Amino acid sequence: MTNRAPSGLSKNTFRMAAAALFADMATEMLTPVLPIFLTQTLNATGSVVGLVDGAAQAIRNVIDGFSGPISDTLHKRRIIAVGGYAMAAIAKPLMGLSTFWEGVLAARIFDRLGAGIRSAPSDAIVASSVDKRHRGGGFGLEALGEYAGAFLGPIATVLLLYALQVDIRTVFYCAFVPGLLAVAMVFLVTGRRPTHGSSRKMIIRPRGLPAAYWKYLFVLALFSIGNSSNSFLILRTQEIGGSLPMTTLVYAGFNLVAALISYPVGSLSDKWGRKNVLLGACVVFLIVYTGFSLAENIVALIVLFLLYGFYQGSFRSMTRGIASDLAPEQLRASAIGWFSATIGLCQLAAGLIAGTLWDQFGHTSAFMYGMASAAAGILGLVFLIRPTKAAEKI
Question: Which CATH number is 326's domain given?
Fold first, then answer.
């Protein structure tokens, strides 16, 4: 960890944040157009749209749990991360080249497979790029890059489609450019082997991680089992009267708020403790879901959606920061990988449950389910998670 800035962040930290920005920009360039491409260009049905997104996300969540232990075993975090970023970049134009929806499905799975492969080793690189006192700021900077990319991606797509009036397939080809820049940023990272010795036996066995880590993972699973897709917030905003352009702008604003809040909140957690900041984020989530279950005014929903950006910008960096704090150096990628897989699968289940409740009983039941899960997670954080000698900032 050389060439460290006064803030405690290293060049590697900024390179990984830049990689996150470019990668998420490439992904979010396609988010608004992928359903349209499937249904209008390839004549696919709505169920196919759900299949493409659901299957791809499920693949990513499962792969998250394997990439961390593999990178810990091989001590090749940078190379594995580069490979994951490259796979995701190549998949973007492959989707645009498809002439049938099965081709899009295959390319989308390849895209999310790459995202899953890169996730844990990338986060482990960030954790290793800063000392323990500034780890919250490191993850906050990475989250800032992600959400900045998520904000810029849809803006770039709008410019391509409406200002330059390109064909929809061209958007997929253009998304390859920021994807390639992400690969270049990770390639520039100066890697180092873990300072502690490790063996395959230690990495494969879950008991290599402390009990505090598994208790923390259980609490986050309680919270995440009700943390459904942001699509339900978008759907409710449109349902109450928001136009498609307005909803798109609100979604962009939500990502902008998340980007602006990520680094300041991450740095604040290094002083106040990550558990306290995470509790605040979970309370914001509870407030937003309560508001969405009750509000019947478009202005109120827009305010709540933007407030949700504070939760989004805090939650990712705090949860990964605590997972890193609770894991020894030689198992850090494994810890983040198992964490990501568990939370991702819980959120996948949350989406299915919330969708069923929405269809059967209306939007209120779906948001009330999320509120109950959030309340359980908040109580778990308060009573079950305690600071340890290895993680004083929790």
Answer: 1.20.1250.20
